[in-house]
Amino acid sequence: MKGKKAAAGDDIGRETRLELYRLQVELRYCEKRAYDLFLQNLVKGTSHLSLGQEAIAAAFGVAMRPDDYTFCTYRGHAHTLARGASMAGVLGELMGRQCGLLGGKGGSMHLTDVAHGAMGSYAIVGAHLPVAAGAAWSAQYRGTEQVAVCFFGDGTANIGAFHEALNLAAVWKLPVIFVCENNLYMEYTPISAVTAVKHPAADRASAYGLESILVDGNDADEVYRVAVRTMSQARAGGGPALIEAKTYRHSGHSRADPAKYRPEGELDKWLERDPIKLYRERLVKLGLNEATLKDIEDQALRKVDEATAIAKASLPPSLDGIEKNVWADGGAAWRN
Amino acid sequence: MKGKKAAAGDDIGRETRLELYRLQVELRYCEKRAYDLFLQNLVKGTSHLSLGQEAIAAAFGVAMRPDDYTFCTYRGHAHTLARGASMAGVLGELMGRQCGLLGGKGGSMHLTDVAHGAMGSYAIVGAHLPVAAGAAWSAQYRGTEQVAVCFFGDGTANIGAFHEALNLAAVWKLPVIFVCENNLYMEYTPISAVTAVKHPAADRASAYGLESILVDGNDADEVYRVAVRTMSQARAGGGPALIEAKTYRHSGHSRADPAKYRPEGELDKWLERDPIKLYRERLVKLGLNEATLKDIEDQALRKVDEATAIAKASLPPSLDGIEKNVWADGGAAWRN
Amino acid sequence: MAELTFREAVAAGIAQEMERDERVVFLGEDVAAAGGVFKTTVGLLERFGPKRVRDCPISEQAIVGAAMGAAMTGLRPIAEIMFSDFLAVCWDMVANEIAKTRYMTNGQIALPLVIRTANGAGSRFGAQHSQAVENWAMAVPGLKVVAPSSPADVKGLLAAAVRDPDPVIFFEQKSLYSMKGEVPDGEYVDELGKAKVLRRGKDCTIIALALMVHRALEAAEVLEKEHGISCTVVDVRSLVPLDTRTILSEVAKTGRLVTVEENPRLCGWGAEIASIVTEECFWDLDGPIVRITTPHVPLPSADQLEDNAIPSVARIVREIREKID
Amino acid sequence: MAELTFREAVAAGIAQEMERDERVVFLGEDVAAAGGVFKTTVGLLERFGPKRVRDCPISEQAIVGAAMGAAMTGLRPIAEIMFSDFLAVCWDMVANEIAKTRYMTNGQIALPLVIRTANGAGSRFGAQHSQAVENWAMAVPGLKVVAPSSPADVKGLLAAAVRDPDPVIFFEQKSLYSMKGEVPDGEYVDELGKAKVLRRGKDCTIIALALMVHRALEAAEVLEKEHGISCTVVDVRSLVPLDTRTILSEVAKTGRLVTVEENPRLCGWGAEIASIVTEECFWDLDGPIVRITTPHVPLPSADQLEDNAIPSVARIVREIREKID
Ligand SMILES: Cc1ncc(C[n+]2csc(CCOP(=O)(O)OP(=O)(O)O)c2C)c(N)n1
Ligand SMILES: Cc1ncc(C[n+]2csc(CCOP(=O)(O)OP(=O)(O)O)c2C)c(N)n1
Ligand SMILES: [Mg+2]
Ligand SMILES: [Mg+2]
Known about the structure:
Distance between the termini of chain A: 62 Å
Low-confidence stretches of chain A: 1-8
CATH topology of the largest domain in chain C: Rossmann fold
CATH class of the domain at 53-73 and 122-208 and 223-246 in chain A: Alpha Beta
Number of helices of chain C: 12
Shape of chain C: globular
CATH superfamily of the largest domain in chain C: Thiamin diphosphate (ThDP)-binding fold, Pyr/PP domains
CATH superfamily of the domain at 53-73 and 122-208 and 223-246 in chain A: Thiamin diphosphate (ThDP)-binding fold, Pyr/PP domains
Mean pLDDT of chain A: 96
Helix content of chain C: 25-40%
Radius of gyration of chain C: 19 Å
CATH architecture of the largest domain in chain C: 3-Layer(aba) Sandwich
CATH topology of the domain at 53-73 and 122-208 and 223-246 in chain A: Rossmann fold
Helix content of chain A: 40-55%
Number of domains of chain C: 2
Largest interface: C-D, 51 and 51 residues
Oligomer: heterotetramer
Mean pLDDT of chain C: 98
Low-confidence stretches of chain C: none
Number of strands of chain C: 14
Number of strands of chain A: 8
Bound molecules: thiamine diphosphate, magnesium ion
CATH architecture of the domain at 53-73 and 122-208 and 223-246 in chain A: 3-Layer(aba) Sandwich
Radius of gyration of chain A: 20 Å
Shape of chain A: globular
Strand order of the largest sheet of chain C: 3-2-4-5-7-6-12
Structural class of chain C: alpha/beta
Number of helices of chain A: 11
C-alpha cells in the first residue's frame, strides 16, 4: 500500500477519488448545516457531529457494496449519509419532522435507513458491536458475501461488549469490519487517561488473533485502501478485521459541549490536518482542475440547501405515532 | 525463576513446601468428601469441585498475607478453605446446615468467610473481576499494601466484565492479581472451540499492557513463585498481574456432569500429572521422609472426618432466616 | 399424542420450527455438542448440523446481540440464555436494543427472535441461579413475554414465538423440566396472548403462571374438598400480550382475585394485574385482591429455606382460607 | 437557607459527605475533570483531589463492580451511572451482585454504597437515554430506591443514602436539574423511607414521584380551582423502603387513589402501590384506582411526541376529572 504505485495514486483512480471528495464535502456541509440548524433552535435533541472525521465515513461509503451493512453510533450522521440515505431524511429527523428517516421517533442518535444498508445508529456505547457480528453471521449463513461494517469510538474499546463481539467474530470468522475512530477523547476525557494501552483498538487486535491495523483516519485514500483490502478478505471467508483510524473531531462531543478540556493549540494542529483540505490539495496535485472541485462543492451545497428546505417545510409528526410501531402489526397493544 | 536455585528448590524452603503439601492434601480430601456427601444425598444443591486444581489454591493460600482478599467463583471450595475457612463451615454450607459458613443462605456456589479474607464466591461468570479490582482500589486508597487475588476459569476470559476489570486495574495500577485457571473447558465445551487465541488469558495480557504469564498450574512451587513475585510487585505499587495457570479438573463441571465430552485418554494423561502426586514425588526426591508425609495425610483425613461429623450433626437452618439479613439491620422490611 | 417431558418439548418445538424454516438458527452456551445443561436441546446438533446449532463462548451480550443482528437481516434466531438470572448480564441488549429498535426506527427494523431461558427456583442453586424474572421483561415495552406451564404449551407456544414477527422472551421453569405431559403429534402451534381457564369455581379467581399454576390447581383441590371454597384457576401463559379479557371476565364472575407469583413481591406481574382489575372491574370486586408471592428477598439455597420462601400449596390454601371468605 | 439548583444540590450533598467522612469516594465517567455531563459534580475534583474523585473508562460493569469491592472493604463509594438507561449495561452487578451479596453471605458482607444516575425524559434524547426505570430497581430485593423531587430533598436524601449501610440507587430526574429551591444551610440529612404529603384534599389522593410530583401539584391546583375536585398529593420520595403507612392513611382519607408515573405502564411502581392499597385498605376505597403512566412504549424523541407520551398536567387533570367523581 505504501509502495510507488500508491504514492502515485493510480491504485485508486480518478473517478473514485472524485467520489471520495464529493462525499467528504457533502458530509461536511451537511454536518455544518446541522450545527446551524441547532443554533437556530430547530434541532431539539442532542446531536454529535463528525466534523473532522469525514474521511472515514466517506472512504467506507465509497468502498462498500450497496448490500453491505453499516452499524454506527449516536455520532452517525456521516455514516448514514455515506450509504446514500436522504439528506432531507437526516436533517428532518434531527429536527423531529415527519420527513425524518424515523418519523421523529428516533432522533439524531438513532439514524437508520435499512433500504440503504444503514442498519441503525446505537446510542449505548458498545452495544452495536455484537449486533454487527450478528448481521455478519447472517450474511455468512446465507452465503451472500455481504460485509458488516461497524464504526465506534476509542472510548468504546474499553467496554465489555467490544471484547465479546471481537472474540465471537474471530472464532466464527465472521465478515465484519470493526472500525475504531480514535478521535482522542471519550466524551470529555482524554482516552489515554482511561486506557491501558496506547492504541485502544490496534493494541488489542492480537487478543483476538487479528492483525493490528492503524491507519490515518484523516486520509481518505488510506482508509479506502484498508477498507477495500479488509472487506475483500472478509468476503472471501478470511474473517473479521479491526481497524483503528486516528482522527479528531473539530467540535465538542455533542451540542452541549464547548470542548474546553482540549489543550490549547490541539484543535489548530488538527485543523491543519483537516481531511477535506488535505484531500483537496492532493487532488490538485494529482492534476484535477479547480473548476471540477468547485463544481463538486457547489453541488454539495445545493444538495444541502435543498434538503434543508424540505426538512424545514416538513410538519411535526402526528401524535398518533406515539403508539405506532412497537410491534410488527404497526401498533402498541400489550393486551387484548 | 527457572534458574539453578529454583531447580534445587531451595528458594522455597522445607517449611513452606510442607505447608503447600498439607494444604493440597486437605483440599483434595475435603473435595472428595464433598463428593461422597453428594452421593449420600446430603449435598442438596449443585457443587463444582476443584479436584485436580488444588495446587493453585494451595500455592496462593500459602503465599497470601492474612489480610489479603480472595475472590473466587462457584468453583470456590478450595480457595475458601485455602484462606483458613472452617472445613465444617464449608461442608455444612454444602449440606444446607446451620453451621454452614452462610447459614444455608448461599450454598456451595457462594462460600464466603470475610474473617479469613475470603470475600465471596461469585456464581455469575466474570462478575467478581471488577469487584476484586474494587477491593484492590480500596486497599490502595487506604494504603494498606493488601492485595486482592481473583480466581476464574478459562471460559471467563471471553466475557465483557473480564475486559473492563483488566483495563481499569491496569489504568489505576491496582494491587490485584487475576488468576485464570485454565482447565481446558468452559463447562462442557472445549475452550479452544470458543476462543480466538490459544491462551485465553496469557495471550490477552498485552491488551492491558501487562506481562504475559503462563504457568504450570499443577506445580504448586511454580504457582507459589509467581504468586510471591506478582503480589510483592503489586504491594509495591507495580499494579496488577494476569496469570494463566494450566490445569485440569478430574471430575465433571458440576455434580450433574459425567464429563462424557472429554476425549478418551485425556483424563488419564492428566491424572499422571496430578498435582498432589507430583508434589509428593518431589518432596520425596528433596529428601522428606515418608512418615512426615503420611502424617500430614493422616492429619488431613482426621480434619475432614471431624468436619464431616460436625456438619452432619448440625441442624437445618431455622426458617426465620428467610427474612433475615437482606439489610444491615438484620431484617427484610421493605416498608414501614 | 405422545407423552413428552417439558424439556423434550423444548427440543421438539425447536426442531419443528427448524425443520419448517431454514431461517431458524439456534445459539447458546453448551447447547450443541452437549445438548444443553438442562438437556433441553439434545439431538438438535445431530439433526440440523453445526451451521444452524451453535455453541458460543460465555459472552451473553454477544450471543443476544448476534441474535439481534441476525434477526434484522433475514434470519429467525433462537438464543438460549442458560439461566434467566443471566439476562442481567445482557440486559442492555435485551431491554435497550432489542426491545426498542423497531420503535426507534419507526418500523424499519424487524426483530423476529426468541430468547429462551431457564427460570425460577427449586434446585437449591441460590440467589443468582433461581430467580423468576418474568416481570423484568414485562416491564420493558417492546418485548413479548411467555411462560408455559406444560409440555404441550411449551411446544405450541415456542413454535408461536418463533413464528412471531416480534422479539419474545420465553421463560422455561427449571422445576418443570422433568414434568411429563401429552403433546399433540405433528405440527403444533399455539397462540401468544391467550390465557387458559383450567378450572372454574365461584368463590375466587386464582391467576398463576408456570410452576405456580400447578400449585394453584392443587390448592384449589384442597380448598374445594377440605374447606368448601371453590376457585377458578387461570394460567396466564403470556404476560405480553396479556389476555386481559379472560382475566377481567373470570375475576368479575367470582368477585375475588388472588395472584400466585414465584417472583419476589415488589413490582411482580401480579401487581400489574391487580392494578388493571382494580381499575377496570372495581365494582365487580367483593373484597381485597390478594397477592401470594415470594417475600421480597433474594432466594436462599438450603432446601428447607428455598421451599419455604416460594409459595407452596399449603401457603396458598392458608392465605386463601384466611383472606377469602 | 441558600437557593440551589437541583444539580448544585447533588454536588452539595456529595461534598458534605466527602467532607465528613474520608471513606466516601466518588467515581464515574467524565465526573472529575469535566464535572459531569450534567454538571452535577462541578468542583468536587478541585476540592477533594483525584484520589477521591475519579474519572473512569466507559466500563459500567467495572465502575459499579469497583464500587462494590470498595464498599465491602471499608470505603463508602458513590458511583455515577451517567444515564439510568445504562444501568442495563451493568444490571448484573446491580441486581445480582450488589443486591444479593449481604443476604447470600448471611450478613458477612456489607455494601454501603450509592449509585447515582440521571433518570427520565424531557430532553428529546430518544428511547435509550430517557427512561424512568425506578421500577427496575424496586423489583430487585436488596436495593433501596430513592427519587427526590426538589433540591432540598436531593441534598438531604443523598446524604442519607451515603450514610445508609445498604446499597441505594439514587435517581435524579434529568428534567429537574435546572430547578431551583431553598436548601438548608450547614449539615443537612434527611431520612430514607418517608413520603411527604405536599397538599391535602378530600376527593382523591394522588401519589407521585420526582418530576411527576410537580405535575401532580399543578394538576391539583387546576382541579381545585377549575373543577372543584380537591386532591391530596403525596411525594413518595423513596420506593424502598416504602412509606406504606402514609400512603395507606392518605388513601383511606380520600377513598380514591391515582398514581402518576413517568415509567411505561407495565409493572411500574404504581402497580405495586395499587396492589398494596387494594389488598390493605380495600374497604376504604370509594372507586377504582387510576394509574396515569406513560403508555407502554419506548419513548419517541421528537419534542411533541415526547411531551405527549409522558403524563402532562393536562392529562392528569383530564383523567382525574373523567375517573374521579
Ligand atoms: C454504556 C454507555 N456509557 C456511557 C455512555 C455516554 N457516552 C456517550 S458517548 C460517550 C463517549 C464515547 O466515546 P468514544 O467511544 O470515543 O466515541 P466518540 O464520541 O468520541 O465518537 C459516552 C461516555 C453511553 N452512551 N453508553
Ligand atoms: C454469565 C454466566 N454465563 C454462564 C454461566 C453458566 N456457567 C457456569 S460455569 C460456566 C463455565 C465456566 O467456565 P470457566 O470459566 O472455564 O470455569 P470452570 O468452571 O472451568 O472453572 C458456565 C458457562 C454463568 N454462571 N454465568
Ligand atoms: Mg472518541
Ligand atoms: Mg474452565
